[in-house]
Amino acid sequence: MLPSFVAKAVPNALSNRAPWYKNTAPTYAGTFLWIAFYSAIGIGTLDRAPLGLLLLGLAVAGLICYLFYYVPAMLGMKTGYPLYVVATSTFGLKGGYAMPGLLMGVLQVGWFAVGTMFATKFVLSAFGSQAGPGTMPFVVIGIAWALGMGYVGVQGIKYVARVALLLNSIPLLMLIVVFARTSGGIGQAEVTNPAPYVGFALIIQMVVGFFATAGAAGTDFGMSSRDGRDVRNGGLTGIALAVLIAGGLALTAVAGAKVMMPGLASYTFEAVVGGVGGWLASAMFLLFIIASIPPSCFCAFIIGNCFSTMIPSVSRMTSTMVSVTVAAILAVTGVTQNLIGIFTIVGASFGPVCGAMTADYLLSGGKWAGPREGINWAGYGAWAVGFTVGILTFIPGMEGLSETVQPLAVWSFVAGFIVYLALAKLGLESKTVPMESK
pTM for this structure? Predict the structure, then answer.
C-alpha cells in the first residue's frame, strides 16, 4: 500500500502552469533579495581576495546553484508532482518520510528563526535601539513577530502572495541606494589578509549553502513550469543572474563601506545601512521590516505544509505554531547569529539530497523512475556520506581544515552524486512500486 501522501497525490495539470517569468524567476529572485543571503557576504571574503575575484566567485556560485535546482525542477515539470512524492524514487516510500520530508520542515524552522532574528533587529534599529538577543525588548518583539507570521502563514498566505512581487522590489531598491552611498570607496578597497582561494571558495560556500534547500524545492517550482525551456529560463534568470545582482551589489557596497565608514563595529550589510545614518537609515530599516513579511510567511507556510503532509494526525495550525515558537526561542537567544554555520548545516543536509536525485535521474534515463519500496539504501548511503563531507569542519579535530576544504556544500553534492551511482551499481537501489496513473 502506498502511503497517503503518495496515494493521494494528483499531478499539477498543464492548464495550471505558467511562464517562467510569472512564477519561478521572480520567486527565486526574491529569495536572494532576502537580507539573510547577503548580510555577512563580505565577512571573511573581502579581506582575503580582490573584489573582481569575489564577483567571479558569485557568478560560479550562481551556476552551481542552478545545477542543484535543475534536476529537481525537471522532475517536477515532467511528473507534475511535488518534492515529497518525487523524492520517493531516490529515498524510498518509507525513507521519504524523513528524507527529504521531515528534514525539509526541520531546516525551515531554522530559516524561520533566521528571519525572525533579522526582523527583530530591524524593528529595534528603526527606533534607534541597540538591544540584542537575550534582552527583554528583543525577546518580546521576536516572539510577537514569530507568532504573528506563523499565524498568517497558515491563514492568510494568499493575501501575502498577492503583494510579494511588489515587496521584493524594496530590498533591491535599498541595495542600490546603499551601493550608491558607498561606491566612492570601492576603488580603494584593500586586501588585508591575502588568501585568494579561501575568499573565492568561502563566497561559493555561503551562496550554495544558503540555497541548498531551495535547490531541492525546485521540484515544486518545476511542477508549475510548462516545459524544459521554462525550467531553464526560470533558473538562469531567477537563480544565476539574481545571485550576481543581489550578491554583487551587497558585496561592492560593503567593500566601499570599509573605506568610507572605517569606524563601523562590523561590516554586515545591516551595519552598513546603520552607518548611512539619519532619517534614511531609519526609513530603510522600516522598509526592511515590510520586506521581511513575505519570506517569513512563506517559510511558515512551508513548515505547515511539510509537517501536515508527513504527520497528518497533527493539524497544520498546531504544527506550525509549535514550530515557529521553537524558531522564536532560537532567534531571541542568539543561536541564529552564526549565519555561516547555519549555511554550512543547510548545505550539508541538502547538498547530498540534490546530488543523489541527480544521479537517480541520470540512471533512470532522464525520467522519474517512480516510488521505490521501503528505504532506498542507495539514497540514504549517498546522503550519509555527503552530509559527513558537508560538516567536515564541525568534526572534533578537523576544525583547522576550514580554510582549505571549502566549499563543502559543493563537495557534499559531489559526494552524494558519486556514492548514489556506486551503490546503485552494487544493487542497493530498491525496486520500484507501480503508481496509479492520474
Answer: 0.92
